[in-house]
Design goal:
about 220 residues, single chain, about 15% helix, alpha/beta, ten-stranded mixed beta sheet
């Protein structure tokens, strides 16, 4: 099974030169550490930065330079800072080519639940609702199952939804899956993981081709 860092490494392979990319809280933030050679992308954080770099080394943190998850970050040469109104105008205006988010659940039709577990205190949805409502290319980075071992890839989400019919691809510690035609289509599996393990961990409809290659990690 892949580590969280390896999930980010695999998603980084989806980046295209010249793209503007929004990275959500959690695993997605690690993607900035794995940009493929020869690829130039601009990472955007909805709290107001375009040109976000990788995490700083220990001792080099700037407490005033943070991402949307309140983690300290670095800024690439030419990075710019702006207010939330400008940031969300960029998001709602569809100027972001890729959005990568974490999730608690994803349904086989592309619905995503990633902001609230009923009964637990939360600060709010943050920018997730705007991101999923405005982006055309959404990749989810998450573990395939929750801490209880229950599948997070479902026929229908049980938690409050963040967005509907919006997820295009999922990368987990077990597999890479495309979401289309009301099903999860298995594209790749993690090295050492079997198709049967993926089937057992997937509660929603799973379409498996005759041959499933290993991820290139």
């Amino acid at each position: 099974m892949l580590s969280k860092d390896q999930i980010a490494q695999r998603i980084a392979q989806e980046l295209k030169d010249g793209w503007y990319v929004n990275l959500g809280i959690g695993i997605p933030t690690l993607i900035a550490n794995h940009i493929p050679e020869g690829i130039n992308v601009e990472f955007q954080s909805e709290n107001g930065i375009l040109g976000m770099g990788p995490f700083p080394f220990e001792g080099e943190e700037d407490a005033d330079l943070i991402n949307a998850g309140k983690q300290t970050i670095t800024a690439m040469p030419g990075a710019v800072y702006f207010d939330s109104a400008t940031s969300f105008a960029m998001i709602r205006g569809k100027h972001i080519q890729l959005t990568v988010l974490g999730a608690m659940e994803v349904a086989q039709n592309g619905d995503i639940a990633n902001w609230k577990i009923p009964g637990r205190m939360v600060k709010g949805m943050g920018g997730a609702m705007d991101l999923v409502a405005s982006a055309d290319n959404i990749i989810v980075a998450m573990m395939h199952t929750n801490k209880k071992g229950e599948s997070k890839l479902l026929e229908k989400c049980s938690l409050p939804l963040t967005g509907v019919n919006c997820v295009t691809k999922i990368v987990t510690n077990l597999a890479v899956l495309e979401v289309k035609d009301n099903a999860f289509h298995l594209l790749e599996k993690a090295p050492g993981v079997t198709v049967d393990q993926i089937k057992e961990a997937t509660a929603g409809k799973l379409v498996v081709p005759d041959s499933v290659p290993d991820m290139d990690i």
